[in-house]
Amino acid sequence: MEESSVAAMRSFWEEMYGDTLSKTAQLVLWSTRDKRSHWTSSVEGAVAIAEAQATVSDLYYGVCLQDKEAAIAERSRRTGEESPSMAFARGYATTTKVLPALWLDLDIAGEGHEKVGLPRNQRDCDRILSALPFPPTWIVQTGGGTHIYWK
Description:
This protein is α+β, with helices and mostly antiparallel strands. It has 4 helices and 8 strands. The strands form 3 sheets. The protein has a 3-stranded antiparallel sheet with strand order 2-1-3, with helices on one face. A 3-stranded antiparallel sheet has the order 6-8-7, with no helix packed on it. Strands 4-5 form a two-stranded antiparallel sheet. A hairpin with a 5-residue loop joins β1 (27-31) and β2 (37-40). It is globular, with a radius of gyration of 17 Å. The model has no long low-confidence stretch (mean pLDDT 90).
């Protein structure tokens, strides 16, 4: 992974989460290749996970921070397992600890997106963004669309 990409990722997550990452408010990242979840309580941990995954898989993250212990208890309740693995769990709405920002995921129609009614191109996304009443804090091009955040 390029040094500038690592620096941008670190800066984004530091601005997004500040000092809210902790043992009870963890960031969950997951790999599309093996569907595994990676839980971390620090920006540096998230960066290390992203660097390790960069050459083998797309990596996604949950915007909301999760209480891992509460997520384990919820997974146990749902599966009936006494000690459930969290390797494939991303957390739950009920175990969300921190909502750091509001966000919108605007996918662009095309390969990888089967939904109908999506914006056809970036120009359509930009038109949607310009109609929103509040300017976003961040706009991130994802390759398959745009993520918009309001801190």
